[in-house]
Amino acid sequence: MYMQKELLKVTDLKQYFPIKGGFLGRTVNHVKAVDGITFHVNEGETLSIVGESGCGKSTTGRSILRLDEPTSGEVIFNDTDLLSLSKRKMRSVRKDLQIIFQDPYASLNPRMTVRQILSEAMNIQKVVPKKEQENKILELLDIVGLGAHQIDRYPHEFSGGQRQRIGIARALSVDPKLIICDEAVSALDVSIQAQVLNLLKKLQREFKFTYLFISHDLGVVRHISDRVIVMYLGKIVEIADKKSLFTNPQHPYTISLLSAIPSPDPEKKRDRIILKGDVPSPIDPPTGCRFHTRCPFATEKCVTDVPELRTTNLMEGGHQAACHYLEEIKEGIMQPT
C-alpha cells in the first residue's frame, strides 16, 4: 500500500508557446500545448500520462521541471512552489527532481565518459564528496546492471539499452525523490523495454522512488502504473487507477485508445474503434470539448460547453472523466453516429 502523502501538486498548468510573425517578429498566436491541467502525484507511486503524439504530455513534464517556463499555473513540490523560485534556488531543488529522457543517443554528452557523466551532477549539487565519488559511481553502475570495467567508456561504445541505463544511473546519482520518465523506453527494442521497465520497478521497490511516467504505449503503461492520466490536445480527459481505467474506461477517447491495443491471442475478436479525422491543431483548438470533432457521440452541447472532470455512479474511487454524456454512453442510451 502506497503512502497517500502528496509529493507533487499541479494546478491549472498552462504552457503556451508564442508564434512570431511579421516584419517586427511580433507574437501573432500561440501553440496551446498544455491548457489548464490539474493533478497530483502521491509519494511512492507511479502516475502515468498517456495520449497521442502532440497531446502535451512531454511538455507537462518539462514544464514541471521548468525546462520550459510555464505560462501560468501552480506547481507545488514537497510544499514548495517551484514557479516562485529564483533560478539559483530552483537549481538546488532539482536535486530532488530528475528526468530520464526519451533518446539515449542524444541525452548523453558524446565527449564525456561514464565516470564524467555520473560525477557531473554530484559535483554541481555537492551530494557526494569527491573522494567518495568513485565508490558511488561503481555502486550506481551495479544498480543499473552495468560493470565497473565500463566506467571509462564513451556513450558510442554502448548499445541503446545500455545508454538508457546510464541515463537512469545519472538520474539516481543525486538521490532524487521524483523521477520524470519522458518516453524512457520508446526508443528501445521490445525485449530491452521489458528489462528497463523491470529495472525501474525494482528501483522503486528498493529506494521508494516516485515516478511520473510519460508514454504513448498503453501496454507499457499497464505494466508499470498505479494511476493513469489520459490527455488529449492539452487537456486531461480521464484520470483513474490502473485497474479501473483498463477494465472500465469512461471517456470515448480512452475507449478508442484501449481498443487499439494488440491482443496476444489471435483467436480473440476485438471491436476496433477507428476515430474519424485528424487531431486538430493546438494553435486553434476546437471550442467546447476538444474531442468533439472526432467523437462519435458528439452533440451541439459538446461544441459549445467545456466538460468538467467528474465522477459518476458507474465509477469507483478517484476515477474521473471529462464528458457530458458518461452515463448515457455507458448505459447504451446514446449510440455512435
What does this structure look like?
It is a single chain. This protein is of the alpha/beta class. 31% of the residues lie in helices and 23% in strands. It is built from 11 helices and 11 strands. The protein has helices spanning 57-64, 87-93, 114-125, 130-143, 160-172, 190-207, 218-224, 242-247, 252-259, 300-304, 326-330, and strands at residues 6-21, 26-42, 46-50, 72-77, 80-81, 97-100, 178-182, 210-215, 227-232, 235-241, 320-321. The strands form 2 sheets. The protein has a 7-stranded mixed β-sheet with strand order 6-7-8-3-9-10-11, sandwiched between helices. Helix 6 links the parallel strand 7 and strand 8. Helix 3 packs across helix 4 (130-143) and helix 4 packs across helix 5. The radius of gyration is 21 Å and the shape is globular.
Topology diagram in text:
Blueprint: E1 6-21, E2 26-42, E3 46-50, H1 57-64, E4 72-77, E5 80-81, H2 87-93, E6 97-100, H3 114-125, H4 130-143, H5 160-172, E7 178-182, H6 190-207, E8 210-215, H7 218-224, E9 227-232, E10 235-241, H8 242-247, H9 252-259, H10 300-304, E11 320-321, H11 326-330
Parallel strand pairs: 3-8, 3-9, 6-7, 7-8
Antiparallel strand pairs: 1-2, 1-4, 4-5, 9-10, 10-11
Helix pairs in contact: 3-4, 4-5
